[in-house]
Amino acid sequence: MTKSTIQYWNTLTLANKSQWEVIADTNGELEQLTLSMDDATGDYTRLTRFKAGADTSAFGSKYHDYPEEIFIISGRLFDVAFGVLLEAGDFASRPPGEVHGPFICEQECLVLEISFPSQSIVSE
């Protein structure tokens, strides 16, 4: 099976507001919208919206055993692990195991995430 796709749709219009889902345990401060998913590999592309005032410190830092790429579409997001303020246009390519977050967001921020669980590196 190949990665699912939807051609030419505006994810940010009011008509598509119902497609967004609140991320569990975030008090509505974070939402996500999966743009495409490969059911066979688990690889996915999604948007994550951090609302103004969002703070993921309660979750601590995180890492994945697979590569992940992010692109900041709009807003600003502070990555505590790196001590860096990510702004619109910033891109990061995270290798497996790279620690990132928690994140603090003073103004709404929209992030494009492309993740590759099919490329997981399992340490033994």
Can you offer a commentary on this structure?
The protein is mostly beta strands and 124 residues long. A hairpin with a 7-residue loop joins strand 1 and strand 2 (30-37). The strands form 2 sheets. A 6-stranded antiparallel sheet has the order 1-2-3-9-4-7, with no helix packed on it. A 3-stranded antiparallel sheet has the order 6-5-8, with no helix packed on it. It has no helices and 9 strands.
What are its keywords?
mainly beta; 6-stranded antiparallel β-sheet; 124 residues; 0% helix
The strands making up the biggest β-sheet line up spatially as 1-2-3-9-4-7
The SS-based structural class is: mainly beta
Instruction: List low-pLDDT spans.
Output: none
Run of helices and strands: EEEEEEEEE
Instruction: Report how far the terminal alpha carbons are from each other.
Output: 29 Å
**Rg measurement, Å:** 15 Å
Q: Tell me the number of strands.
A: 9
Shape: globular
